[in-house]
Amino acid sequence: MSGFSTARQKMVDGQVRTNDVTDRRILDAMFTVPREAFVPASRQALAYLDLDLDVSEGAAKRYLIKPQLTGKLLQAAEIGEGDNVLVVGCATGYLAALTAKLARQVTATEGDSALVAKAKDAFANLGLTNVTCKAAACAEGDPAAAPYDVIVLNGATEVTPDALFGQLKEGGRLVGVSAESRPSRAMIVTRSHGEFGYRPLFDAAAPVLPGLERAAAFVF
To answer: One GO molecular-function annotation for this sequence (predicted)?
Structure first.
């Protein structure tokens, strides 16, 4: 086993399984998709640590969220093999690559065009043909490929992402971290008969996605 595959096994066994991720398909995906392939070369040694990993190259910070949170969100989403999925704010594409192992089709959005190019390269190098990455603001989603069975946020939102909710199909669900109030929590939002039902899942923290920040309060 290479050093990375040993680290990957330790990540799955020590960070993901121990946080009640029991879905075999997710565990297999996390063991087979090389997280280091989505990390700048200078930071690859950090690829399997239990942290939100900064993969940005430009001014705006962009992250891969913690492995254990990644696994728990995917498990909560209950992605089926026939599902059409949107991954929002994918950064370099790790969460989208995992999702591509679970779903029929995945669309990923990222506001930083340099990271979009990196995600596309990583998908191509791994032979993933059912995932595409587009440059788009997190709050916009991708209406062209909607409606979606599942939308997954690669981070947190401090506002209600109405445009994303509108891209869910009937019975569809959105999972991510809601930081609209404290403590922040992983949430699942389900669309049913045009209404949206919210269910908190567990306490969780993640970097807030660009464009989904709370508006700054005006101070005299």
So the answer is: protein-L-isoaspartate (D-aspartate) O-methyltransferase activity
Per-residue pLDDT of 117-128, as tens digits, reads: 999 999 999 999
Cβ neighbors of 8 (< 8 A, separation 6 or more) are 30, 31, 34, 35, 48
Distance CA 113, CA 42 (A): 20
Which residue matches tokens 């990957």?
A: 8
The residues, any chain, with a CB within 8 Å of residue 117's CB and separated by 6 or more, are none
CA distance 132 to 145: 11
Give the three-state DSSP class for 43. Answer: helix
User: For residue 154, which of 58, 48, 38 has the smallest C-alpha distance?
Assistant: 38
Residue reference for tokens 């909607």 = 146
Residues near 167 by beta carbon (within 8 Å), at least 6 away in sequence? 86, 141, 142, 143, 146, 147, 148, 151
Distance of CA 82 to the CA centre of its chain: 19
* β-bridge partners, 84: 105
Residues 79, 90 contacting (CB under 8 angstroms)? no
Q: Which two tokens stand for residue 23?
A: 């879905």
**Residue 48 is encoded by which pair of tokens?**
């399997």
pLDDT in tens, 87-108: 999 999 999 999 999 999 999 9
Spans in the chain with pLDDT lower than 70: 1, 59, 217-220
